[in-house]
Write a structure and sequence with these properties.
Length: 148
């Protein structure tokens, strides 16, 4: 049995090395997984719709960003945990949140536009890579000792 010791960032950097997006978007996605490696930023006890409405009323960049990032992580790694509404609902909230971030910074950082435009594809790319890894992990009997 081989035991791998990696940081969450290193793990996702290797896993997503060829993900179909710009380099800064890829780096941002990796940073999202670093951000949510603990439950400190968990939004599962909050209403996604209510948070989005509050962010919209206040034009609050941080709330839009946290909401979209949490939904991205949840949809790409734990989609079964989002069961109070449809996948489309969650994807729409995440996309609108990323677009709102993009607009609030005067369209200066294109990665938010790419995240919004390609959200579903990016989630699917992560899911496919994780599924392949899970199959390979079971086959090779690897253990990755950290919690996502």
């Amino acid at each position: 049995m081989i035991i791998l010791h990696k940081t969450v960032g290193n793990f996702f950097d290797e896993l997503l090395y060829d993900i179909d997006c710009q380099k800064d978007t890829r780096a941002y996605i990796i940073s999202i997984y670093e951000k949510y490696k603990t439950a400190d930023c968990d939004l599962s006890n909050y209403s996604v719709g209510e948070m989005f409405c509050q962010a919209r009323q206040r034009q609050n960049f941080a709330t839009y960003q946290d909401l979209a990032d949490w939904l991205f992580v949840s949809q790409s790694i734990f989609p079964q945990h989002l069961h109070h509404a449809s996948k489309d609902y969650y994807d729409n909230i995440a996309q609108m949140s990323y677009y709102s971030c993009y607009n609030l910074i005067n369209r200066q950082w294109k990665l938010y536009q790419e995240l919004a435009d390609s959200l579903i594809s990016l989630e699917e790319q992560v899911q496919v890579r994780l599924a392949k890894l899970n199959t390979q992990t079971l086959k090779d009997n690897y253990i990755v000792p950290f919690d996502l």
